[in-house]
């Protein structure tokens, strides 16, 4: 019985993705479900105290990075420093080249 439930769930999920693909068949430039999730990332801001988690380094290393590179994309609001997630990712990739 449990196996049939999993099969039904699998068929429903497959039907959703097939239907979504057919809906956008004549418009190949439209955004799919995963692109829409990534689009939400563009608008997110990271607090200065949390930026080390995003970069994957220690807090001390993050402070040194922020001091050494003044061109890092950031926004100051009410005395707080925020980093636009998409711009920070692009900046880090450019820095690594």
What oligomeric assembly is this protein in?
single chain
The geometry reads as elongated
Radius of gyration: 21 Å
Percentage of residues assigned to helices:
55-70%
Low-pLDDT runs: none
How many beta-strand segments? 3
Q: Give me the number of helical elements.
A: 5
Note the gap between the termini.
Answer: 54 Å
Q: Report the biggest beta sheet as strand number plus sense, adding barrel if it closes.
A: 3 strands, antiparallel
What's the topology here?
Elements: H1 2-23, H2 33-41, E1 45-47, H3 51-55, H4 59-68, E2 75-77, E3 80-84, H5 85-96
Antiparallel strand pairs: 1-3, 2-3
Q: How do you describe this structure in short?
A:
With 97 residues, the chain is mainly alpha-helical.
Overview of the molecule:
This protein has helices at 2-23, 33-41, 51-55, 59-68, 85-96, and strands at 45-47, 75-77, 80-84. With 97 residues, the chain is mostly helical. It has a domain at 35-96. It has a three-stranded antiparallel β-sheet. The longest helix has 22 residues, at 2-23. The model has no long low-confidence stretch (mean pLDDT 81).
């Amino acid at each position: 019985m449990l196996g049939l439930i999993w099969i039904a769930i699998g068929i429903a999920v497959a039907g959703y993705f097939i239907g979504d693909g057919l809906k956008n068949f004549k418009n190949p430039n439209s955004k799919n479900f995963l692109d829409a999730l990534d689009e939400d990332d563009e608008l997110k801001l990271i607090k200065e105290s949390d930026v080390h988690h995003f970069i994957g380094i220690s807090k001390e290393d993050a402070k040194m990075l922020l001091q050494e590179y003044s061109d890092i994309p950031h926004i100051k609001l009410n005395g707080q420093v925020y980093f636009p997630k998409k711009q920070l990712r692009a900046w880090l990739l450019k820095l690594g080249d």
